[in-house]
């Protein structure tokens, strides 16, 4: 990065009007020294964080990329596997199941959380006495321990004695779903729990976005005779676009990486009904000691997340044009 | 220029600090043989709540005053993962406690432990039946100190009240019939005749041990009858259904101690907590143990079980002391220490049995004593490097069968096709 001062210095010394090369040299070296100093200062600010990142994230990530092409039990020396791990992946039934479940989870979790968080933000973006209480109440699930959330929702979803099904019976649904005990309903149950947990956090992001919209826009719209719906559609939504984009990216990435909630709630069961990629990685790597194969799966997961994110960025760029 | 120098200095200091942090070696007890005293480190789980370790360590230290034991305490739930990580990181803990045979297969196939055939050879194999369970391709990588097996825990008072004869030698069919007679009440007050825990071993392990079927065979038709029986009981409501037990994470110990179930087939590891809870007053029931119900009614008691043992880390610093400990733990002295708190030791002898039944609160009837000496204790699964992966598949299909998502036949067919397609059996 060159600063204006630097460019000015450089321009002074290198200007074509300068006579003689001899007087030119010390000036140039001074500029270079200054520049180097600036770079060093810049680095010194980034360095502490970068070192931590490099040590605990970058190096393991690169190691995982290499490991994906090896057989390794985490103890004995790794052996080269070529694309063995990937050919195994293509034929691995559990991988197909986990991939499908991960996509289904994302398809359910992303739009639902987005819509509910936006709805709540609109509802709570009012100047009412005690509104802060409701905002905190809705944010609360996000700061609650995930294990507690998973265990409590497991109880709520209990097919026979759980309050959810008792309520469903009460309103006349005789054949209530088996939730976490049923292969069909386990994934929806997990999605519902995760939406409930995450909505508060994304609501706060949307609230911040809403409060940044200048009031004049709404006044202008009102002058033009816009109704509530038109104001939402033509003022609120377009103004929220940067926030929506951020929420969308964060949500998609977290959906594809989901692990903790499922691990505590269902452990991937019943059968493989809620098995997701992260859990398969854990199972094949940590439990079965096949670190090469589990690295190959994580590489695939990485590529999926990358594609989804790049696609969203491209879409956003096109919209902004 | 001055600023530059400061920066470089700062950078050097930061780098030095980071390197120092990374290279942090356990300096205090590495080597551990200063002033003639050896410090032996042993990995254990939930040290405070697993009294067998302390009993064993105290007895060993008393017999060997020159050796001090340093337990490396690990949370039980994370034990396997943590040990895997430790060993991969070159940890020098001398002795690793082997929690189950699936883990053992992993350590042995990776050759992470020392060959201890020399210790195994000197031990009385006839008194330690579990010794052979650790034979991995002719090499012992660990030595057992306890051997648990499945028995039937039953609530004596509930049997008397219902007028049912004590379960001296039941078949599984008779077990189901008794469960029917012992089931009472409904809703929140319901008392189940039996509680069958959610583990796949409760169906598959018993079937394997009593029919001779093996999870490594790739053929699972031998599970069918046991599944039909279990699902039948679930349907009749004589046992808590699998889905509820699983979603509530039901504790088998609580089910039994609170009198919610009259019969609980479970490993002998449940005896020690029942004795301990009786002392504190949490467990007030009048209980006994009976032989595990049988598939074949030929009078022989065949049950499933497996050893717990110790292995010596390949990177151990105190190998001689570690070998001494392994031999001690497997032998009579170790057995005495373990049995003193209600744990079933690997070493069997009349004296140990007598000591065991002399414990305060231990049932004294003849049925319990018969149950304590089964004719055959078979492994759920032979030791193999593919055991963990096959186990995962069998457990996933178990869940599908128990929740009714798949019929027994479809579930078994799926097990067979999956272990084949993943190349786990030939």
Task: Provide an overview of this structure.
The complex is a heterodimer of chains A (321) and B (426). Chain A has 321 residues and is mainly α. Chain A has 2 domains: 4-67; 92-320, Orthogonal Bundle (MetI-like fold). Chain A is built from 14 helices and 2 strands; from the N terminus they run H-H-E-E-H-H-H-H-H-H-H-H-H-H-H-H. In chain A, helix 2 (24-67) packs across helix 14, helix 5 (131-143) crosses helix 8 (186-211) and helix 13 packs antiparallel against helix 14 (291-320). In chain B, helix 2 (51-63) crosses helix 14 (332-339) and helix 7 (172-182) runs parallel beside helix 9 (224-236). In chain B, strands 1, 2, 3, 6, 7, 8, 9, 10 and 11 form a 9-stranded mixed sheet that branches. Chain B has a two-stranded antiparallel ribbon with strand order 4-5. Chain B is an alpha/beta fold and 426 residues long. Chain B has 2 domains: 36-148 and 305-373, D-Maltodextrin-Binding Protein, domain 2, CATH 3.40.190; 149-304 and 380-421, 3-Layer(aba) Sandwich (D-Maltodextrin-Binding Protein, domain 2), CATH 3.40.190.10. In chain B, 43% of the residues lie in helices and 15% in strands. Chain B contains 18 helices and 11 strands. Chain B has helices spanning 2-22, 51-63, 79-88, 101-109, 117-122, 156-162, 172-182, 204-211, 224-236, 242-247, 252-257, 271-280, 319-330, 332-339, 350-357, 366-372, 387-402, 408-421; strands at residues 38-45, 67-74, 95-98, 135-136, 139-140, 143-155, 192-194, 261-267, 287-290, 302-312, 376-379. Chain B is globular and about 65 Å long.
Poorly predicted runs of chain A = 1-23
| Number of domains as seen in the coordinates of chain B | 2
State the CATH class of the largest domain in chain B.
Answer: Alpha Beta
The end-to-end span of chain A amounts to 27 Å
User: Strand count, sense and closure of the main sheet of chain A?
Assistant: 2 strands, antiparallel
Q: Which value, in Å, is the CA radius of gyration of chain B?
A: 24 Å
CATH fold node name of the largest domain in chain B:
D-Maltodextrin-Binding Protein, domain 2
Shape of chain A: flat
In total, the number of strands of chain A is 2
Biggest interface reads: A-B, 42 and 39 residues
**Roughly how many Å apart are the termini of chain B?**
72 Å
Could you tell me the mean pLDDT of chain B? 88
Q: Into how many domains do the coordinates of chain A divide?
A: 2
Describe the oligomeric state of these chains in a short phrase: heterodimer
Strands of the largest sheet of chain A, in order across it?
A: 1-2
Strand tally of chain B is 11
How would the global form of chain B be characterised?
A: globular
Question: Share of helix among residues of chain B?
Answer: 40-55%
């Amino acid at each position: 990065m060159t600063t204006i001062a630097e460019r000015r210095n450089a321009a002074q010394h290198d200007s074509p009007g300068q006579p003689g090369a001899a007087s030119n040299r010390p000036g140039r070296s001074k500029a270079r020294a200054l520049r180097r100093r600036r770079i060093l200062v810049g680095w010194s600010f980034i360095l502490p964080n970068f070192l931590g990142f490099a040590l605990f994230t970058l190096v393991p990530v690169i190691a995982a990329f290499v490991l994906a092409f090896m057989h390794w039990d985490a103890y004995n020396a790794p052996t080269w596997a070529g694309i063995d791990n990937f050919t195994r992946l293509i034929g691995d039934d559990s991988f197909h199941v986990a991939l499908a479940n991960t996509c289904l989870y994302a398809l359910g979790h992303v739009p639902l959380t987005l819509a509910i968080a936006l709805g709540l933000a609109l509802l709570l973006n009012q100047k009412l006495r005690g509104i802060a209480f409701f905002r905190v109440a809705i944010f609360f699930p996000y700061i609650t321990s995930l294990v507690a959330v998973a265990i409590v929702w497991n109880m709520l979803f209990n097919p026979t004695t759980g309050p959810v099904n008792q309520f469903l019976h009460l309103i006349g649904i005789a054949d209530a779903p088996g939730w976490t005990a049923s292969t069909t309903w386990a994934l929806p149950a997990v999605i519902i729990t995760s939406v409930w947990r995450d909505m508060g956090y994304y609501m706060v992001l949307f609230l911040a976005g809403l409060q940044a919209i200048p009031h004049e826009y709404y006044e202008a719209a009102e002058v033009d005779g816009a109704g509530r719906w038109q104001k939402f559609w033509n003022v609120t939504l377009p103004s929220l676009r940067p926030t929506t984009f951020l929420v969308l990216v964060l949500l998609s990435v977290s959906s594809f990486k989901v692990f903790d909630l499922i691990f505590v709630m269902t452990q991937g069961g019943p059968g493989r009904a809620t098995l997701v990629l992260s859990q398969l990685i854990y199972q094949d790597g940590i439990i079965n000691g096949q670190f090469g194969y589990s690295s190959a799966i994580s590489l695939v997961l990485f590529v999926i997340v990358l594609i989804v994110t790049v696609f969203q960025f491209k879409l956003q760029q096109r919209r902004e044009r | 220029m001055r600023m530059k120098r400061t920066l470089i200095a700062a950078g050097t200091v930061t780098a030095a600090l980071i390197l120092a942090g990374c290279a942090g070696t356990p300096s205090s007890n590495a080597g551990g043989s200063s002033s003639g005293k050896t410090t032996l480190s042993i990995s254990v789980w939930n040290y405070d709540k697993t009294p067998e370790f302390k009993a064993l360590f105290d007895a060993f230290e008393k017999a060997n005053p020159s050796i001090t034991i340093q337990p490396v305490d690990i949370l039980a739930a994370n034990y396997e993962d943590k040990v895997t990580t430790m060993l991969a990181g070159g940890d020098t803990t001398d002795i690793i406690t082997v929690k189950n045979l699936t883990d053992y297969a992993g350590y042995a196939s990776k050759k992470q432990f020392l060959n201890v055939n020399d210790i195994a050879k000197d031990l009385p194999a006839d008194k330690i039946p579990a010794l052979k369970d650790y034979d991995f391709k002719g090499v012992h990588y660990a030595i057992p100190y306890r051997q648990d097996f499945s028995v039937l825990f039953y609530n004596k008072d509930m049997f008397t009240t219902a007028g049912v004869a004590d379960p001296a030698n039941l078949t599984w069919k008779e077990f189901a019939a008794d469960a029917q007679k012992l089931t009472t009440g409904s809703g929140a007050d319901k008392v189940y005749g039996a509680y069958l825990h959610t583990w796949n071993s409760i169906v598959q392990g018993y079937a394997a041990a009593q029919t001779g079927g093996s999870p490594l065979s790739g053929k699972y038709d031998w599970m069918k009858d046991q599944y039909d029986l279990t699902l039948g009981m679930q349907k009749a409501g004589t046992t808590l259904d699998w889905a509820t037990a699983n979603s509530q994470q039901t504790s088998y110990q609580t089910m039994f101690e609170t009198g919610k179930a009259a019969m609980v087939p479970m490993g002998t590891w449940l005896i020690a907590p029942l004795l301990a809870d009786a002392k504190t007053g949490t467990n007030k029931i009048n209980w006994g143990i009976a032989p595990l119900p049988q598939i074949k009614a030929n009078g022989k008691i065949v049950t499933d079980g497996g050893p717990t043992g110790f292995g010596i880390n390949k990177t151990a610093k105190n190998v001689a002391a570690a070998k001494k400990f392994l031999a001690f733990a497997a032998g009579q002295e170790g057995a005495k220490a373990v049995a003193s708190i209600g744990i079933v030791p690997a070493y069997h002898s009349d004296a140990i049995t007598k000591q065991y039944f002399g414990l305060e609160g231990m049932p004294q009837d003849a049925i319990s004593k018969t149950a304590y000496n089964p004719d055959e204790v078979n492994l759920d699964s032979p030791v193999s490097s593919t055991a963990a992966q096959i186990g995962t598949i069998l457990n996933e299909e178990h869940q599908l069968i128990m929740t009714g998502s798949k019929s027994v036949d479809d579930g078994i067919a799926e097990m067979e096709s999956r272990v084949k397609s993943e190349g786990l059996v030939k």
